[in-house]
Amino acid sequence: MRILVCVKRVPAPGSKINITADGQRVDDANLGHTTSPHEECAVEAASQLIEEHGGEAVVLTLGGVEAEEQLRYAVSVGMHSGVLLATDGGEWDPQRTAAAIASAITNLEASGGPFDLVLFGNESADSSGFQVGIRVAHTLGRPMVNGAKGLRVDGGTAHVEREADAGREAYELPLPAVVGVKEGINLPRYPTMKGRLASKKAGVVTVEPAGEAGGLAMVTLKPPPERTNETVILGNGPEAAAAVVDVLEEIGVL
Amino acid sequence: MGDTVPSNAKCVIIGAGIVGNCLAGHLARLGWKDMVLLDKGPLPNPGGSTGHASNFIFPVDHNKEMALLGVQSANQYRDVQRSVDSGGIEVARTEERWQELQRRMTSARAWGVEARLLTPAEVKELVPFINEDVILGGFYCPTVSVVDSLDTGTIFRNEAIDKADLKVFANTEVMTLETVDEPATGRKRISAVVTDKGRIEAEYVVIACGCWSNRIANMAGATIPLVPAVHQMADVGPIDVLVETNSEIDYPIVRDMDTFCYERQSSGSMEVGSYAHRPILHHPDSIPSNEEAALSPTEMPFTQDDFDPQMEQAIELMDMLGDAEIKYAINGLLSLTPDAMPCLGETVEVKNLWSAAAVWVKEGPGMAQVVAEWMTYGYPRVIDPHGADIARFYNHERNDEHIWARASEHFNKTYGIVHPAEQWESRRALQTSPYYSRQQDLGAFFFQARTWERPQWYESNADLVERYNVADREAEWDRRWWSPITVGEHLNMRENCGMVDLSAFQIFDLSGPGAVEFADYLSVNKIGPVGRATYTPWLTPDAGFHSDLTMQRIGEDTVRVVTGVFDGGRDLAWIRNYMPTDGSVTVTDRTLEISTLGVWGPNAPALLATLTSADLSHEGSPYGSLIDVDLDCGGTTVPAKLFRISYVGDTGWEIYVDWNNGPALWDALMANGREAFGLRPTGGGVYGTSGRLEKGYRLQGAELESEYNPLEAGLARPKVKSADFIGKAAYLAAREKGEPEVVMCTMTVEDSTDSEGRVRYLQGGNEPILDADGNRITDSHGRVSRVTTAGYGPSIGKQILMGYLPRELSAPGTDLKVMYFNEIYPIKVVGTGGPFDPDDSRLKG
Fold first, then answer.
1. A15 to chain B, minimum CA–CA distance in Å?
2. Which of B501, B696, B777, B782 could form a disulfide with B746 if both were Cys (CB 3.0 to 4.6 A apart)?
């Protein structure tokens, strides 16, 4: 089978996130970068499916040239090749991103054959738009389930599970299909040294993305209000026991 | 741990990494009270370099301070039971490295560290997963240890809390340091530390902030020349063979020296660390805060591309690494200085503001002890710290441009093969003498002494090689940074006359009504009357050598200090530290105002007589005298001071003139001397090594260190002056004890033909001196007999060594041995003086 996984390069910050003076992006000058966690799981899911069924997995991203780092990382953990929709590095809105990816998929399928599955992360770690996957699916006219916590393929059907308030929802999607994977579906592997070295030699194709700007524009980013953790010392030794019991009752543990 | 800091303290230590914690513990052991320890991060791991250190100690280093403090530190980790002897192997992939491992064996013998060379098969026995096909062998050291630096820090900190009621404040950031002016010395004095939790007035402040240290020092107007630099590490695993050991470390650490990498077991994983990647330096301001950092501030994002070549080499050495997962990988920050040595001691700009920085985990506890003793006793007792003394740096060495250039240059030499005489490539010609262009025209090969360029030899003297039939050297190592021309220059000086550029001398004038008294307080020997110069040690309070220099009484109220370029910074700091604060003495740096040329050799008096009608006989210009003359330099009258002294064993003078008059003096001497008196410009190879060694003259920092006193160095005079001086009480006590246990001796190498039939030439890199049976020689203080200087003595036709020997082995003619590149050669004791002209007839006859 053929699988395409779409990922996004995002900063890897600490607990405090700095925003640039113009309010347009996370100040990543001193930060490393990673792939959104949901997408790491999507890559792992693809690797496992290929290991089970055979075939080929391709990883795709839209971003600046430095996003090649994330493509090669994905290759180092099981993807076969990468596609970079190279932008000037600025943030693209979800509509435009989705249009570019859909267009790229069409072109990739024309030259390399159809993708049975296109995987996304549930949402990106930085802007959390929840939009690109569903927009791509809609454009391509393929069924899509987001929030997948289970995924297997059986013949021409993808079986997808996701968590719901009262248990798990189960879906059957005819292939080709689109699935948005949620963190927790699996435990992504780390690259091995040999995997990393092989990834350097893997093919990464750079494509100029096509897509018109959509209606969604970012106004400004603001850091969330600082959370304050108040620590109350309930006492020392046995004399604290009564206060501890009160707290445990208050939070409903007892 | 309250929320607000105390309003005052005797001592505030900033930084709770391995150094700050151990320092608090050592100060508490030495009786200090009323101390505060701060860190901007949480405890026990505040996020500095200690928290991600690879935590292993290889106890063999060619450098004495690093080697002995490494061992000292390893033992302190053992004392608190936070150490495991894993053993370690440095493997060689190349013939050049295999030779270097022979040198490691030699240093291991010098410092008394157990070590042996292994065949590839023997390496494989200890490390079954190594690919023995790519190595030529290994250097195995069973006492290589792995330590828990965070826990050790906690133990030392708790000891200080218990013993000295140390107050500890984590998550407390220093906002600024306050100082007050100290007009008499031109310095400032620390007065307070302002934190985000309040202000602390403090008598002493110590900066132990690792890679942030310079930024904190700058808050007080001080400098700690270091830069945060990346050392990449990747943790790969789990690996079955390691998991099965069920232990933190069960296999020896492997240093893959030729690829500048190491492989160190870390429980079920292997940690691969690299010093092979491009130098990656950071400004302290670009290090994220604890809150901003994804991991910790000093665990910066891994730049994978830099590490890829090392992964290939690591897999080549240990194939199992290839299939292991990279679980954790960082660009770990550590501190680099311009000369790869730490920054210890009081900052030169701010009194009572101390630096304990650029110290790695492997030497942390020992270096902390050095600083604690220094603060307590006025100088360290555990070791001579001159190589790590922060005062060694001149201003040119304290700016970012210099720090970054030099750190970039030496980073990849961390596992490099570095010759003892190796020169820097970057940042040359920072300070040049007035003769620089003339020297360049003469093909001078320059050695840089800290910031100063000094000719080591002159290619224009190449004809002397033929004239004196000088042989070349067979071993490439022995002829590296050396030329046979230097032998020719030496023999020409002994036969005719040589001229040495001494403009790198550091010259400080002490003046004012208290100047002579103060000068006497610094010096063991009495400052003479106007017109006399005094060659004298300056002692530490424990009567070891701090300095060895000349002091010229150039006026009723002025004493001129002339010292070597390697010690000028330390000596000026020493002056400022001890000078009266009542304004009765001022100190002025005259280095860039005065130029010095030395002229020595049998023709020197006749040559100098062409420039002056002054009486240059031993009556008119006796040894040690200082006379003012006017020199006729091609029609220009150049006022000069002639100081009759010699560091090379031939008669002659140091000629001091105004900097701007230097070229006229050079030209006049060359014009009058070149043909008529056989004068040749002569390089540092003669002045610093061959000429000096033939006479057995001691050099500060080589023979003279704070671990030895004047009795041992053979520089004690029959009587001690009545006036007080630094170290007098300890010096008198040492004299009371009678004959010293060890004495500085010269020795000659009797046969240095190696196993390949080549005559080898020792380089003076701490080679161990052994008794006739080949055993190490140590005294009751643990001081080892080792080569402090080595060089060829052209006039006696033998290699000459210097070193301290126990008195019973110091008799002239005693047969001993020396090790060089792991081979043993016979040597013979000359005595406490040099082998050439023992009666000084050429100097004073």
1. 5
2. B696
